[in-house]
Amino acid sequence: MRTKRAIRIVLSSTLLQLIIVFSGLLLPRFFLEAYGSEVNGLVASIKQFLGYFSIAGAGIAVASNAALYKPLAEQDINQTNGILAATKAYFYQTGFIFSLLLLLFIASFPFIIQTNLSSSFIMLAIFIIGLGAIVEQVLVNKFTVLLVADQRNYIISRTTTVGVIINTVVSILFIKLNFSVLTILLVTTLTFYLRLLLMKRYIRKNYPKVDFNVKPSMDAIKGRWDAFGYQISGIITVYSPVVIISIFCGLKEASVYSIYNMVFGSLTMIVSIFSAGLSASFGNIIASDEKKVLIKSFNTYEHLYFMVTFFCYLCALILIIPFVSLYTKGINDINYILPTLGVLFVCCGLTYSLRIPYVILVEAAGKYKENKMLNIYEAILNIVLSLILVRYYGILAVLIAGFITGMIRTILFIVFTHKNILNRSHHKVIIRLLVNMVAVLIITFIPFTTAIDSWFSWLELAIKVVLITFLVIVSLNVVSDLRASYDLLRRLKLHTKVKSVLRA
Q: What pTM does this model have?
């Protein structure tokens, strides 16, 4: 059942991420053509600032999920309702704080950046985008907590997929019809309300005994402050770069960063497909105290995840600059072709993605308190290094800082999980890293042609890079760990047989 649900989550998440990737690549190009780099940089900066403000609600979802694993497994509806009521109450409180931060942002942001855009335009843009963020923070998150804890992430994926498709189609249509930027942003905000209605309808139909209005069990998620400290690093690491760039370098430079970040953000989402829903699965195993099952399952997952991660980022290393050169062709208000920026994005993305399996274990085991201070130190060091280096390296500074702090924190995550959760030596993960680093050396020494002048020639290059990289990565990893490869194949075959029986 765990494997079946995990695979179902992965499949639904795969569809969603592919649609988000497609939409994320398509819409910014229309924005750049219609409104220019400055407006694109403004929208990217606003979204990053609002991401910062989500710190107000950090820790609630993670702590609530951890608290719900046991009552859901035991079908204790009273305890489940108490936790959900507390979750709702906390999200309402943080939603109020978020709203105050939004008002402060509206009043100050137009006057701390250098731009030719009017203050009234910037304020309206912040307000419209902020409305959608408030709906997510206050109303949607309480439903997602229940669905994630109950391993029904695929429902979240379905509702989000509908919203993304509608937003993409309507936004492009409105851009082609020469509607204003503010109208396009309003369309995006309205999709949050659609997602809310769809999720609310599903919860009422499939969880008839669930009640968010009972007496809240506030003590059940008292670990939210530990989870807050634990999550704050990730929030700052993800959202600080564009914020720092927009203030110290300008909105056009923020647009350059956002285009590369769009590509690598899409790549991160593709990689995260292979971790979707697994926190609940591992949480269930840990709660059941099945240590042998945990170690064996995690070993197989780690084996697959490393292959997928190195494969994706190796392909990106070769393809990113040809892609950006074609994507920004005809946009001449600032230079987008920065090879060093592409390499640094690969380094940062790889470093961050490699920690995800261990982050999943920490969250599944509820080990927030033990990790929160290290995460806070990472966040502080990241900000300090970025602010020091931005004067000398400009847009590159945030990536240099991110790589240094990210590498250190990822190593510490690996050490912690092996010592305190898996209780096994580090030799397997070290071997896996070395094997995949050999793959990196092999691929980087292959003389791929990168002089691309059309999307067709880029596609030819992409097919060649994907095939060669796949063969190198899979061959090295399978040979280096035959047992994990066999177990992975066995699990996939078992799922295929179960699926065939169910269809019959």
A: 0.77
